[in-house]
């Protein structure tokens, strides 16, 4: 897990450095920057309810990198590139399906077709997050909500 996290962090940094044009929009100043206070507060409270095997600090780093990497790739870069070729409804639908496929293929025991309720929930989440990104243009709300979920339910 440590090597995967380090690799994801390095790749994410490389992508951020090479996609400045998109980053100006994805990370533009916005009212939603204040929403990062929620995962920060939840991170401070995490040790009070944390009961997983991993050390709590390692979990926080792992989840932060994982959430950033996943959201930046899917709802940031992918959605931006699709937006150059497709109408908004096509971008939202395509992004949601790719988000679902990533979960269904890489975590089939939880989100594969055999587990149709969680599978549909991930597709619905993908639609919701892709719609938010399309509407707000930035990633702030998506990142804050996604990271808050992991810090709240660890």
Summarize the structure.
The chain is mainly alpha-helical.
Largest pleated sheet? none
Q: Would you report the number of β strands?
A: 0
Shape: globular
Number of helices: 8
Uncertain stretches of 5 or more adjacent residues: none
**Share of residues in strands:** under 5%
Mean pLDDT: 95
Cα end-to-end separation: 17 Å
Secondary structure elements and pairings:
Elements lengths: L1 H17 L1 H7 L10 H13 L6 H28 L4 H19 L1 H4 L4 H21 L3 H13 L2
Describe the overall structure.
This protein has helices spanning 2-18, 20-26, 37-49, 56-83, 88-106, 108-111, 116-136, 140-152. The protein starts with a helix and ends with a helix. It has 154 residues and is mostly helical. It has eight helices and no strands.
How would you describe this structure in keywords?
single chain; 154 residues; mainly alpha
């Amino acid at each position: 897990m440590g090597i995967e996290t380090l690799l994801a962090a390095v790749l994410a940094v490389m992508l951020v450095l090479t996609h400045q044009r998109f980053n100006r929009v994805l990370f533009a100043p916005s009212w939603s920057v204040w929403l990062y206070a929620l995962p920060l507060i939840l991170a401070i409270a995490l040790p009070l309810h944390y009961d997983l095997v991993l050390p709590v600090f390692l979990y926080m780093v792992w989840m932060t990198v994982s959430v950033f990497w996943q959201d930046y790739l899917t709802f940031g870069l992918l959605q931006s590139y699709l937006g150059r070729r497709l109408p908004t409804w096509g971008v939202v639908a395509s992004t949601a399906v790719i988000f679902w496929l990533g979960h269904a293929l890489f975590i089939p025991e939880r989100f594969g077709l055999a587990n149709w309720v969680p599978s549909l929930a991930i597709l619905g989440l993908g639609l919701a997050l892709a719609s938010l990104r399309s509407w707000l243009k930035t990633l702030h709300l998506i990142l804050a909500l996604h990271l808050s979920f992991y810090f709240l339910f660890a």
